[in-house]
UniProtKB/TrEMBL annotation:
Keywords: Aminoacyl-tRNA synthetase, ATP-binding, Cytoplasm, Ligase, Metal-binding, Nucleotide-binding, Protein biosynthesis, Zinc. It is an enzyme of class 6 (ligase). It comes from Gymnodinialimonas phycosphaerae. Residues 18-315 form the tRNA synthetases class I catalytic domain. ATP binds at K271. The keyword Repeat does not apply. A motif ('HIGH' region) lies at residues 32-42. A motif ('KMSKS' region) lies at residues 268-272. It is found in: Cytoplasm. This is Cysteine--tRNA ligase.
Length: 446
């Protein structure tokens, strides 16, 4: 079996993945808070961990990889949005979760094995919190339950910060019910008009962090192989997950992976700069999902990624070419697997694919989530059958070989090129590859 090496954020080293249960891999990735369309920064994380999921399935077999990605469907941002729009919370979160699945599936993202919703695990969270209180790591006060950060010695280890630095640098909230400003909320009281559940501490709702610890434990157990998420989640979210789970006595995740953030044309994406867009905006503007995915995979997940129009155009051109050369296959060449197994070096894997064609290219496109065995509609020749032109050009070439008069061949080539078609002529024959500028109307009358 191929060794998969991954950069572990926890040890800051590249390590060989050594599954807890030999031959089986378990992974948890923090999913979206569902109240709005996913922006392309959110989508990068979905694609990165989908690519890892696809590699793991390729190496370990489809049935031997368990991937959990949650939906956060209880959150104050959700409550605020529902109030703003005057609609039911459950209705808002159900619709947004479906949007997320639609949009990510359009990017070739497979559905994870389990997609738990936080509201489905409230009892598990309450039990988890009760256990933390019993062990002295948490305390209840005024309807709140807080995690006692200073009681957990390793707090800050994952993100490499000391508690005192964190207090100095972070916007920690001082509140009368906190023993220490660093303590974070596990449970908080709910007013009558917002979602709440009965608990030993009164009617309330969970804080954000506890849901991942409780759901990972419920589905994957006390220890699992990989935990992923965006680099922006490392502190405080992941630091708090580690604190809760390890304080409860679980070993939790062996390898932590974080994908870096996304920019647009060299600038941080923000609503005020007008360069903020959602996956749906891109898809609706005519950018195919495969092209978006290809642009994402062009940059290593551990580096900041820049979305540019130039990259979009290049990705589209390459994919059109590849779809013209690929055939169905499932034997992925070693060099492509080796690149992916080297800390998910998708950039290198794509570089290797430039050397391929036929079934090897088809199998590689599949493992990269860029092909489902058929050429996507957008990359087909817009319904124009080019075979007549291939025949015409072949005939003209044959005649020209004898007459030594290539003027007809040249005229045909010029016209085809002007219509955005790449003309390839070799001993094997004539090949016509429509490029991104292909304009079928220019073929009329030829
Ligand atoms: Zn999480």
């Amino acid at each position: 079996m191929v060794d998969i090496r991954l950069k572990n954020s926890k040890t800051r080293r590249v390590e060989v993945l050594d599954p807890i249960v030999p031959g089986k891999v378990s992974m948890y990735v923090c999913g979206p808070t569902v109240y709005d369309r996913a922006h392309i920064g959110n989508a990068r994380s979905a694609v990165v961990f989908d690519q890892l999921f696809r590699l793991l399935r390729h190496v370990y077999g489809k049935d031997n990889v368990t991937f959990v990605r949650n939906f956060t469907d209880v959150d104050d941002k959700i409550n605020a949005r529902a109030a703003e729009e005057g609609r039911e919370i459950a209705d808002l979160t159900a619709e947004t979760a479906l949007w997320y699945l639609d949009d990510t599936r359009a990017l070739g993202v497979l559905d994870p094995t389990h997609m738990p919703r936080a509201t489905g695990y409230i009892a598990e969270m309450v039990a988890f919190i009760e256990d933390l209180i019993a062990k002295g790591f948490a305390y209840a006060r005024d309807g709140h339950v807080l995690f006692r950060v200073r009681s957990f010695e390793d707090y800050g280890k994952l993100s490499g910060r000391s508690v005192d630095d964190m207090i100095a640098g972070a916007r920690v909230e001082v509140a009368p019910y906190k023993e220490d400003p660093m303590d974070f909320v596990l449970w908080k009281p709910s007013a009558d008009d917002i979602p709440g559940w009965e608990s030993p501490w009164g009617r309330g709702r969970p804080g954000w962090h506890i849901e991942c610890s409780a759901m990972a434990h419920a589905i994957l157990g006390e220890q699992f192989d990989i935990h992923g998420g965006g680099a922006d989640l490392m502190f405080p979210h992941h630091e708090n997950e580690v604190a809760q789970s390890c304080a409860a006595g679980h070993k939790f995740a062996n390898i932590w992976m974080h994908n870096e953030m996304l920019q647009v044309e060299g600038k941080k994406m923000s609503k005020s700069l007008g360069n903020f867009f959602t996956v749906r905006d891109l898809l609706d503007s005519g950018v195919p999902g495969e092209v978006i995915r290809m642009v994402f995979l062009g940059t290593h997940y551990g580096k900041p990624m820049d979305w540019t129009e130039k990259k979009r155009a290049e990705a589209e051109k390459t994919l059109r070419k590849w779809y013209g050369l690929a055939e169905a296959g499932d034997a992925v060449p070693k060099a492509v697997v080796a690149a992916l197994a080297d800390d998910l070096n998708t950039h290198q894997a794509l570089a290797e694919m430039h050397k391929l064609d036929g079934a090897e290219l088809g199998a590689s496109l599949s493992v990269m989530g860029l092909w489902s065995g058929a050429v996507p509609e957008w990359a087909q020749e817009d319904g124009v059958d080019l075979s007549a032109f291939v025949e015409c050009l072949s005939d003209a070439r044959e005649k020209a070989m004898q007459s030594k008069d290539f003027s007809v061949v040249d005229a045909l080539k010029t016209a085809l090129t002007a219509a955005g078609i790449e003309v390839r002529m070799s001993k094997e024959g004539v090949e016509l590859l429509p490029g991104p500028d292909f304009d079928p109307s220019k073929l009329e009358g030829l």
